[in-house]
């Protein structure tokens, strides 16, 4: 399994690219989605990470082969809650809405990632390795585009991981060291592809709520 991390990365390239190029995300990065759209995305992430980090706690407690991936330094829920308090105010819990696509994603996490180490690693890989890669650049961009400074974008910063590049190298090494059967390896790859599709579904639903405007479609002067 020495090249397993490469296998997972290559197998998910199409789904990864499709999720990244959804209209909602492209427009968000360009600042044409209103601030409530960014806030709504942050709310969806909270539902997703609450489910995933509940699974992480369970994997750590069971101390199986997935426990090494469930690093508390990756925890995102407190940062997301702080971001939402900034974006919505002190009553943010009652202000946010979980979309149908997000609920389906979270259900998948509760049903499989919390019970199957293979499925847990698949979702863990998709979310956190993405956060440690393009996510940090995205956070800086959105902070500037929406005039937030560091407030409202703490989700994108990993204060307990000073060297993201080194961490990602170590993470991939752990993937390569997994002693999986071919059936388990295939299931992990398939679930990682599914995780990207769930992510894309959230972007599509948000794009319907915050659609393109005539100004978005107009050619640049």
CATH architecture classification: Up-down Bundle
Helical residue percent band: over 70%
Quick one: CATH superfamily?
A: Heme oxygenase-like
Oligomer: single chain
The total tally of domains equals 1
Main sheet specs: none
Characterize the overall form: globular
What is the C-level CATH assignment? Answer: Mainly Alpha
Mean pLDDT: 93
Give the helix/strand class: mainly alpha
Strand elements, count: 0
Residue fraction in strands: under 5%
User: What is the alpha-carbon Rg in Å?
Assistant: 17 Å
Helical region count?
Answer: 12
Taken in chain order, the helices and strands follow as HHHHHHHHHHHH
Here the CATH topology equals Heme Oxygenase, Chain A
Low-pLDDT parts are: 217-221
Distance between the termini: 53 Å
């Amino acid at each position: 399994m020495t090249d397993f991390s490469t296998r997972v990365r290559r197998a998910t390239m199409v789904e990864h690219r499709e999720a990244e190029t959804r209209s909602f995300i492209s427009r968000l990065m360009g600042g044409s989605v209103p601030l409530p759209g960014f806030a709504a995305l942050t709310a969806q992430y909270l539902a997703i990470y609450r489910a995933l980090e509940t699974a992480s706690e369970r994997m750590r407690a069971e101390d199986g082969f997935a426990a090494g991936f469930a690093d508390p330094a990756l925890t995102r829920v407190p940062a997301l809650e702080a971001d939402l308090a900034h974006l919505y105010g002190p009553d943010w819990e009652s202000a946010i809405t979980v979309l149908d696509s997000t609920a389906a994603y979270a259900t998948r996490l509760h049903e499989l990632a919390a019970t199957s180490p293979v499925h847990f690693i698949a979702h863990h890989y998709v979310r956190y390795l993405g956060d440690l890669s393009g996510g940090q650049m995205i956070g800086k961009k959105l902070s500037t585009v929406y005039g937030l400074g560091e407030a409202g974008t703490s989700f994108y910063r990993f204060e307990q991981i000073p060297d993201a590049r080194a961490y990602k190298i170590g993470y991939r090494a752990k993937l390569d060291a997994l002693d999986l059967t071919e059936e388990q390896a295939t299931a992990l790859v398939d679930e990682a592809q599914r995780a990207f599709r769930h992510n894309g579904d959230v972007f599509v639903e948000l794009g319907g709520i915050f659609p393109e405007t005539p100004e978005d479609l107009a050619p640049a002067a």
